[in-house]
Specification:
This protein is mainly β and 120 residues long. The strands form four sheets. Strands 6, 8, 9, 11, 12 and 13 form a six-stranded mixed beta sheet that branches. The protein has a three-stranded antiparallel beta sheet with strand order 5-7-10, with no helix packed on it. It has strands spanning 7-9, 12-15, 18-21, 25-27, 35-42, 47-48, 54-62, 68-73, 81-82, 85-88, 97-105, 108-111, 115-119. It has one domain (35-119): Immunoglobulin-like. Strand 11 (97-105) and strand 12 form a beta hairpin.
């Protein structure tokens, strides 16, 4: 559901030549604040061998949507990517650091705790 789905609804039916109309109901959709932004990694444990692949996944426990995602490393101010997944295909020494995911939903913003990634 989205906020725009709030409104008055009814159903109508036709049996033979008889038309029937239900009583209207009012549906109100409320915004839910962003809650529970979390990170997971593959491979797990935050340690990746040089040249291997690292996939970070960002999840949100509650929110109304639509949501936008951005990825950041604490040592760098620039966004590393968008979307709920960040994939680094061939990690290098400079990919070590603390990663976090920021989620925006309208005027709301929340971020995950940082995940320390070490390149072996």
């Amino acid at each position: 559901l989205q906020l725009k789905h709030s409104g008055h609804y009814h159903c109508e039916g036709l049996v033979s030549f008889w038309q029937s109309l239900s009583a209207p109901v009012t549906v109100t959709v409320h915004r839910i604040s962003l809650l529970g932004v979390s990170l997971s990694e593959q491979p797990s444990g935050g340690q990746v061998a040089l040249g291997d692949r690292l996939v970070l996944s960002c999840a949100v426990a509650a929110g109304t949507g639509p949501m936008s995602f951005s990825w950041h490393r604490r040592s760098s101010g620039a966004a590393l990517g968008t979307g709920p997944l960040l994939e680094l295909c061939h990690v290098g020494d400079n990919d070590s650091g603390h990663y976090l995911c920021q989620v925006r939903e309208g005027d709301s913003k929340a971020e995950s705790v940082s995940l320390n990634v070490t390149i072996l």
